[in-house]
Design goal:
By secondary structure, this protein is mainly alpha-helical. Helices cover 76% and strands 0% of the residues. The protein has two domains: 68 residues, Orthogonal Bundle (434 Repressor (Amino-terminal Domain)), CATH 1.10.260.40; 81 residues. Pfam families: HTH_3.
């Protein structure tokens, strides 16, 4: 995201903020403490912030997230159709409801694979079983990280709803 790191640095310098001061500004919009090293990684190493942090950065600089990531050259969104946003929100909510079905599908597929492993030689079964367990642990880790990010984002939305 080279545009992001360039625009972040430019905006920070325009405000005459140090990286520490930017981290403090971000802390005003998120629940967890925020470090200077993250700001440095974004500006210098091209790291990308999670969505809720991107929103906090946009809020701190009073610019749109589209501007930060290079989807727009306008610093602020001046024409957002609220009806379209509501329809998009409805679609997103409906898509998250599918999560239960996806989890059930995963369980069924894993059970099916485990049944198929039962007919293999003990050595091959043990090897594939181990790989399956490692992958499921990785999947669980990623799922939990996404869930934590989702919770943080919903907290951000709640704060914005109740902000003056």
């Amino acid at each position: 995201m080279p545009i992001f790191n360039d625009r972040l640095k430019k905006l920070r310098q325009q405000q005459r903020w140090t990286m520490k001061e930017l981290a403090e500004e971000i802390n005003k919009f998120v629940d967890s403490p925020f470090s200077v090293s993250s700001v440095s990684n974004w500006e210098n190493k091209g790291s990308e912030p999670p969505y809720n942090i991107l929103c906090a950065i946009a809020k701190a600089f009073n610019v749109s997230s589209d501007y930060l990531i290079g989807l727009s050259d306008q610093e602020t969104n001046t024409n957002i159709p609220s009806l379209q946003l509501n329809e998009n929100t409805k679609k997103e909510i409906q898509s998250t409801i599918k999560t239960d079905q996806i989890q059930q599908d995963i369980q069924v597929k894993v059970q099916h694979i485990q049944e198929q492993l039962g007919v293999l030689s003990p050595e091959k079964k043990e090897l594939l079983d181990k790989e399956l367990i490692e992958y499921l642990n990785f999947f669980d880790y990623k799922y939990n990280m996404l869930y934590k990010e989702f919770l943080s984002f919903t907290n951000y939305i709640q704060r914005e709803i109740h902000a003056p």
